[in-house]
Design brief:
The chain has about 325 residues and is mainly α. The protein is about 80% helix and about 0% strand. The protein has a two-stranded antiparallel ribbon with strand order 1-2. α1 packs across α11. It starts with 8 loop residues before the first strand and ends with a helix.
C-alpha cells in the first residue's frame, strides 16, 4: 500500500452539480438507509428473539440481513456526507476500507444466497435428510465458510489493487470506491493483469454458484410439480419465491453493471446502475422476505406488541413513582 504516501485522497463522482439536487439525494439516501436499517433490524430481532424461527432457513436469513446492513453502511453514509457538504473527496485509507468492505459483504451475500438455495433444495427434494444435512453444526460451518471466503476474497483483491502504482490521476467515475474504477488509474501492466486474473477467478466461482442455483431450482420445480395437492405445491412455491426474487435482483443488477455494452455507458447511467445493485437490494430484501412469510410477520408483530406493552408498563411505573 505504498500509494498512501503519494496520494492522499480520491475524487468521487458527484450525482449532480446543483446544490438543491444534492440535498434531494441526501434526503433520498437517508430515507432508504433508515428504511433498510429498520427493516433488517426488525428481522434480526425477530429471528433472535423468537425460538420458533431458530431453524436453518431463518438462521441464514439472519446472516443475510447482516450483510445487507453492511452494504448499506459501507456506501451510503459517505455519499450522504458528500451530498450534504457539497464535496466529492474521500481519503486514501477511507477508500481502501470502503472497497474492502464492499467486496467483503457482496461476496458473503452471494455465498449466503447459494447456501439458502441449498437449504430450499434439501427441504423440498430431500425432506427426510433435512435434519442430517442441515443440522446446527453444519449450518454454523456453512455460515462461517461464507464469511471466511468473503474476507479472504476481499483481502486479496484489495491488497492486489491498492499495491499497484496509480498514475492516471485520482478521479473515480463512481460515487463510492470500487475496485474496477481504481484499476483504471493504474499504470502497471503486470499488476493490472494479475488483478484481472484474480477478478476472472472470482467471477468463475460466482458463475459456479449461479449454475448451482439454477440446477437446484430445476430440481426443486420438478419435485414441486410432482406434489399431488395444489395446496402443497403453493406452499412449496411460497417458500422458494422470496429467495428466487432476491437472487434474480442481485444477479441481474450486478450483471448489467459489469457487463453492459460500452456504447451504452455514461456517467449518469453508471450512477443509476450502481445505486440499483449496491443500495436498492439491501433495502428491498427484508420486504421481499417478509411479504409472503406469515411466520416472520407474526414474529415481528408479536415482538412489536410485546415491546409496546413493556414500554407502557415502564411508563406507568415511572408515573406512579413520581406521584408517590
Amino acid at each position: 500500500m505504498s500509494n498512501s504516501s503519494s496520494m492522499a485522497q480520491f475524487l468521487l463522482l458527484a450525482f449532480t452539480d446543483r446544490q438543491e439536487l444534492q440535498l434531494l439525494h441526501f434526503w433520498l439516501f437517508l430515507a432508504i438507509s433508515l428504511a433498510a436499517l429498520l427493516a433488517n433490524g426488525l428481522i434480526l430481532s425477530a429471528i433472535a428473539c423468537d425460538h420458533h424461527l431458530h431453524t436453518p432457513r431463518y438462521f441464514f436469513l439472519l446472516h443475510l440481513s447482516l450483510t445487507d446492513l453492511g452494504c448499506i453502511c459501507t456506501t451510503v453514509p459517505k455519499a450522504m456526507h458528500n451530498s450534504l457538504w457539497d464535496t466529492t473527496t474521500i481519503s486514501y485509507h477511507g477508500c481502501v476500507a470502503q472497497a474492502f468492505l464492499l467486496v467483503f459483504f457482496l461476496r458473503v451475500e452471494f455465498s449466503l444466497l447459494t447456501i439458502m438455495c441449498y437449504d430450499r433444495y434439501v427441504a423440498i427434494c430431500k425432506p427426510l435428510h433435512y435434519g442430517t444435512l442441515l443440522g446446527s453444526r453444519a449450518c454454523a460451518h456453512m455460515a462461517a465458510a461464507a464469511w471466511a471466503t468473503g474476507f479472504l476474497n476481499a483481502l486479496l483483491h484489495t491488497a492486489s489493487t491498492f499495491s499497484l502504482p496509480l498514475c492516471q490521476g485520482n478521479a473515480l467515475g463512481q460515487f463510492f470506491c470500487e475496485l474496477p474504477h481504481i484499476l483504471k488509474l493504474s499504470c502497471s501492466h503486470s499488476g493490472y493483469r494479475r488483478e484481472i486474473g484474480l477478478l476472472w477467478f472470482t467471477i468463475s466461482l460466482a458463475f459456479g454458484c449461479f449454475v448451482f442455483i439454477v440446477f437446484s431450482y430445476v430440481q426443486i420445480f420438478r419435485a414441486v410439480l410432482r406434489i399431488p395437492s395444489q395446496q402443497g405445491r403453493h406452499k412449496a412455491f411460497s417458500t422458494c419465491l422470496p429467495h428466487l426474487v432476491v437472487v434474480s435482483l442481485f444477479v441481474s443488477t450486478a450483471t448489467f453493471a459489469y457487463l453492459k455494452p460500452p456504447s451504452t455507458s455514461s456517467p449518469s447511467l453508471d450512477l443509476v446502475v450502481s445505486v440499483l445493485y449496491v443500495v436498492v437490494p439491501p433495502a428491498l430484501n427484508p420486504l421481499i422476505y417478509s411479504l409472503r412469510n406469515q411466520e416472520l410477520r407474526d414474529a415481528i408483530r408479536k415482538m412489536m406488541i410485546t415491546g409496546f406493552l413493556r414500554s407502557n408498563k415502564l411508563h406507568l411505573f415511572f408515573c406512579r413513582t413520581l406521584i408517590v
